[in-house]
Design a protein that fits this description.
It is globular, with a radius of gyration of 24 Å. The N and C termini lie far apart (about 75 Å). It has two domains: about 10-270 and about 475-490, Aldehyde Dehydrogenase, Chain A, domain 1, CATH 3.40.605; about 275-455, Aldehyde Dehydrogenase, Chain A, domain 2 (3-Layer(aba) Sandwich), CATH 3.40.309. Helices cover about 40% and strands about 20% of the residues. The chain has about 500 residues and is α/β, with parallel strands linked by helices. The strands form five sheets. The protein has a seven-stranded mixed β-sheet, sandwiched between helices. Strands 9-8-7-10-11-19 form a six-stranded mixed β-sheet, with helices on both faces. The chain has a three-stranded antiparallel β-sheet with strand order 5-6-20. Bound molecules: nicotinamide-adenine-dinucleotide (NAD). Nicotinamide-adenine-dinucleotide binds near residues 169, 194, 196, 197 and 255. Nicotinamide-adenine-dinucleotide binds near residues 247, 273, 304 and 403.
């Protein structure tokens, strides 16, 4: 990979250091200390230095946040106001996000090591679009009228489900925040949001913007803290009606168990993946190379849908590998504030060590290392973009989610073989197909058991396009009208029609 800026004292990078104003819990419209008074440190992954101390919420803080959210739901204006009024406030929230793109982008880069250029141009602008999408949906929530069999008629009402718990991961902190809260707000729910402990800053900043926009106190609450304390308290709380969770399978299971043994709240789980990218012989080699690199290495591989298994048909294999290595050498690792950087540091020490241990495992299992395979630079959690050749389906690196910049190449002969091997996983989050043959594209996309299929593209997300898993990648969708449905429940109302001679 190309030499980056990490540790290069001569580089002239504009590090847009954000102004960290919010580090406390956001409950009932105020920023408050945790009840215990405890805090935890959040670290800049590119320097390993402490950025700020964040209030550490626990069970009691979740309880307090749920209490105010409950009151706002049972007695407050938000669930009762006309949808168009909620939409107006949400559009104001979107305007404020647009006005604060640079600050939010800087927070994400500083706190999580995401590329500043991506944040400012793509990620943060996309979240205001998401809010606007659901603002537009808020006044289009309708039930149905029902003609019933005997002399009765009925109708259904779609009502907000109640107080929702939103538990989110660290890899796209702002996007995940909005992905969860925007449909819940549109539905008329009130909520307690538990951001990942590695990435609290943007969540608190967004809470501040929500308040400025006019979202009433108690409707949107943010409790920062750890998963096994604050997160677990959300999942098991008797007064939360629905939990929407994005994160690992392991924790998803715990969330489901907690819901089952508490109040049987509804649960939706967006979990991990081991997504295949299938490159067929007829594909354009340059396009396939770019998609393989982008699919696997974008956001340092910290994307649930990343194409960590790249299946390549034997006729194009050698050409593709050659191009892949050539292009991977130009993949710049370094300071995420530097516009020329393609890959910043992994989010924290734990993830960094986890990814490196998978790389070691790949070497031990006999996969051939084509490029990378080591930490990068003197400080910060940087890892070289890594490509393994001769990977077999039974290797751990081909089976488990790595969540790092590691691409595994697997060779196949026939279309049937590609489908069978792509599906031979417990995951089913996403897949990509690279081909110019319409029949291959159509038949393979129907045969892959995954919730999202990209044909000749990858990582294309849109507010209107539902995303979510098959199999152990979870259930329930984010984005699109499907997401809104998670936060609504159907009430049927039935009434007789007396003495009608026409029925
Ligand atoms: P994680 O499961 O460790 O944590 C996710 C969230 O759950 C965090 O807020 C954490 O504090 C909380 N949590 C941890 N333990 C908990 C518990 N016992 N009860 C309740 N909450 C708890 O996942 P992560 O490391 O933050 O994120 C990486 C994982 O998320 C990967 O597996 C990735 O694939 C997945 N992910 C999935 C999607 C998707 O849309 N499917 C998107 C992003 C990330």
């Amino acid at each position: 990979m190309a030499e980056g800026s990490n540790g290069d004292s001569k580089s002239k990078i504009h590090r847009r250091i954000p102004n960290i104003k919010f580090t406390k819990l956001f409950i009932n419209g105020d920023f408050v200390d945790s009840i215990s008074g405890k805090t935890f440190k959040t670290i800049d992954p590119s320097s390993e230095e402490v950025i700020a101390k964040i209030a550490e919420g626990d069970k009691e803080d979740i309880h307090l946040a749920v209490k105010v959210a409950r009151k706002a739901f049972d007695h407050g204006a938000w669930p009762r106001m006309p949808g168009c009024e909620r939409g107006k406030v949400m559009n104001k929230f979107a305007d404020l996000i647009d006005e604060n793109v640079e600050e939010l982008a800087a927070l994400e880069t500083f706190d999580v090591g995401k590329l500043f250029s991506f944040e400012i141009n793509i990620d943060i602008p996309s979240i205001s679009k998401e809010v606007r999408y659901f603002a537009g949906a808020a006044d289009k929530i309708h039930g149905k009228t029902l003609k019933l069999s005997s002399q009765f008629q009925g109708y259904t009402l779609l009502e907000p489900i109640g107080v929702v718990g939103l538990i989110i991961p660290w890899n796209f902190p702002s996007a995940m925040f909005v992905l969860k809260c925007a449909p819940a707000l549109a539905a008329g729910c009130t909520m307690v949001i538990k951001p990942a402990e590695q990435a609290s800053l943007s969540a608190l900043y967004l809470a501040h913007l929500a308040k400025l926009a006019g979202i009433p106190n108690g409707v949107l609450n943010v409790v920062t803290g750890f998963g096994d304390t604050a997160g677990a308290a959300v999942a098991s709380h008797m007064d939360i009606d629905c939990v929407s969770f994005t994160g690992s399978i392991e924790v998803g299971r715990l969330v489901m168990q907690a819901a089952a043994t508490s109040n049987l709240k509804t649960v939706s789980l967006e979990l991990g993946g081991k997504s295949p990218l299938l490159i067929f012989d007829d594909a354009n080699v340059d396009q396939a190379t770019d998609l393989a690199l982008f699919g696997s290495l974008a956001n340092k591989g910290e994307i649930c849908v990343c194409s960590s298994r790249v299946f390549v048909q034997e006729g194009i294999y050698d050409k593709l590998v050659e191009k892949l290595v050539e292009k991977a050498r130009t993949w710049v690792v370094g300071d995420p504030f530097d516009p020329s950087t393609r890959q910043g540091p992994q989010v924290d020490k734990k993830q960094y060590e986890r990814v490196l241990s998978y790389i070691d495992q790949g070497k031990r299992e006999g996969a051939s290392l084509l490029i990378g395979g080591k930490p990068y630079g003197e400080k910060g959690y940087y890892i070289e973009p890594t490509i393994f050749d001769n990977v077999t389906d039974d290797m751990l690196i081909a089976k488990e989610e790595i969540f790092g910049p590691v691409l595994s190449l697997l060779k196949f002969k026939t279309i049937e073989e590609a489908i069978e091997r792509a599906n031979a996983t417990t995951y089913g989050l996403a897949a990509g197909i690279v081909t110019n043959d319409l029949n291959i594209a159509n038949s393979v996309s129907r045969s892959i058991r995954a919730g999202m299929i990209w044909i000749n593209c990858y990582h294309n997300f849109d507010s209107g396009c539902p995303i979510g898993g098959y199999k152990m990648s979870g259930f329930g969708k984010d984005h699109g009208v499907d997401a809104l449905e998670k936060y609504l429940q159907t009430k049927a109302v039935v009434t007789p029609i007396y003495n009608s001679p026409w029925l």
